[in-house]
Design goal:
Strand order of the largest sheet: 3-4-5-6
Radius of gyration: 19 Å
Shape: globular
Number of strands: 17
Helix content: under 10%
Largest sheet: 4 strands, antiparallel
Number of helices: 0
Order of helices and strands: EEEEEEEEEEEEEEEEE
Structural class: mainly beta
Distance between the termini: 45 Å
Length: about 250
Amino acid sequence: AAQEGGLFLGTATSPRTAVRILALLGRPAGASARWDLLVDPVQTGPNEITALAAQWYISPTKLPHGPVDTVILGVEIARIDVSTMPASITVLAPAPDAIAWSRDAASGDLYYTRPTYMVPSEDSLYQPIADTVFRATSGGGTPVWGRPEMPGQVSGRVEGLAVAGGRVFVSYRWAEFVSTPGGPPPRLQTTSRIAEITAGVEATARMTQIGFTADRWGRLAITGDGTALIAESILPAGRDLYRIGVTP
């Protein structure tokens, strides 16, 4: 577990000379709870960034299953003024337990994704069984889409979220055992999809991957003019970025 953290301001040419302007792993002035990390900060002004402030949950080791991956638990979406020392923050909206977020540059609306986890067991802690995308409000959030339950799926989750001009895009995946008549024992197949959400339903499946090696689409971003997604492709041998046109 990290013992020290912060937001640092420096230059691309000399990153090691960066100065910490905001301490993390504690509760900054104006925050509602402890901040451990800032998820996907984006520049939203000449001297400001906006980010999802979140906490870490690091599970204790449970033999014989070993340690469970670190889980991100969102706290709130906040604007951070990096021209002050220390940096000053303005909380924009609560985002409890969120794992991803996006800002619509056209309207300024904020969105976040929050999983629903299954009851923890010795085999599985914080295993998502549902995901919901919310439009953030000062009082919480308004649901705009829920990940569908696929017949026969054994796992699934939302990976990425991007919004522009009121258009909402998500990447999500699910896994299921499949077999063919007379073939080998059932194998775990992963389906990963990038989709556009309209009026609370999946209107357009933009890109789909299906395979047995857990290839999947990961995090999403969108260009400033809203005409193309930048999608993370996660493969066994590494990761790539793809530009995917989404012009209506």
